[in-house]
Amino acid sequence: MLKEAKRRIGIVGYGHVGMYLVQRIQEEGESHNVELAFVWNRTMERMEGAVDPRLQLQHLSEFEKCNADLIVEVSHPDITKEYGERFLSAANLLIGSPTALSNPDIEQKLRETAKTCGHTLYIPSGALWGGEDIQRMADRGNLKALRITMTKHPNSFKLEGALRKTTLQPINSRTVLYEGPVRDMCPMAPNNVNTMAAACMAAHTLGFDRVIGVLVADPSIPDWHVVEIEVTGAKNEKTGQEFTVTTKRCNPAAPGHVTGSATFLSFWSSLLVCTGHGGRVYLC
Q1: The pLDDT of residue 263
Q2: Per-residue pLDDT tens digits for 217-229
Q3: pLDDT tens figures, 234-250
Q4: pTM to 2 decimals?
Q5: Where are the domains of the chain?
Q6: Identical fold between 7-126+264-283 and 131-258
Q7: In this structure, are residues 195 and 148 in contact, taking their beta carbons and an 8 Å threshold?
């Protein structure tokens, strides 16, 4: 019996999540039948002494030559904007910055590319708790509303545009930075609200325009990222009662980090699931 070929993984981005995934593949890849195809980062020096020079991809535009089976983007939504279609044409794609999909043109192009090429566009659950249940409700047509509140220490935010101005001033108490459709928030907090973007993909009947996001800065929680999810389902026609689910996830986080510690393991679990599920979008 022939031994199954190892799945070759390309890692795009060598920040905290990228470092973690590379290390896990280096240490445990043999037992999971995976190996590194390449690692790319904007600043190549960051990989010195940690990544075999033969695996360091100097120019991202040349990724095809590495023959990756799965490409994992854990860099910035701009990467998906520039390379998403090419990535998905060549391999399965795990998009760690799903805020990129708040651009309807990008979402549509990637959906079409997945369908045409037969590769899977994977959306990692990350810090989203209950994503599969939300997706099932959407599939059944029972999902009526979804509201997500993310609370972090002010130093954990990397904001852009209008929201950036709010963090330039000292925040001394719990402050709501934004409340409204997730689509409008994604360009202003591209590194902070990937959980909300993943929820929008799971809640596909609501999407980025009807899922409501609330972003809160709270200096009293320097070591935590808190995600609260409020799901509203169908109303019972006889009693008028609504189905509701509320969850609160408290994720330990190093001060100033945009990613909570439990999310790293979630990404690793998602990576292992990405074995190919056909030309579609798949929450993992």
Answers
A1: 79
A2: 999 998 888 999 9
A3: 988 889 899 999 999 99
A4: 0.92
A5: 7-126+264-283, 131-258
A6: no
A7: yes
Six-digit token string for 83: 């390379």
Any bridge partners for residue 122, and if so which?
A: 94, 282
Order of strands across the sheet that contains 92-95: 34-40, 7-12, 70-73, 92-95, 121-123, 281-283
69 SS3 class: coil
226, β-bridge pairs: 151, 250
C-alpha closest to that of 252 among 137, 114, 152, 177: 152
Cβ partners under 8 Å of residue 187, min gap 6: 99, 102, 160, 161
**What CATH number does the domain located at 7-126+264-283 have?**
3.40.50.720
Q: Which residues contact 243 (CB under 8 A, 6 or more apart)?
A: 142, 232, 233, 234, 235, 236
- pLDDT tens per residue, range 142-169: 999 999 999 999 888 889 988 887 765 6
Give φ, ψ of 238 to 5 degrees: -80, -45
Fold for 131-258, please state it. Dihydrodipicolinate Reductase; domain 2 (3.30.360)
Structure tokens that stand for 255 in this block: 């001060």
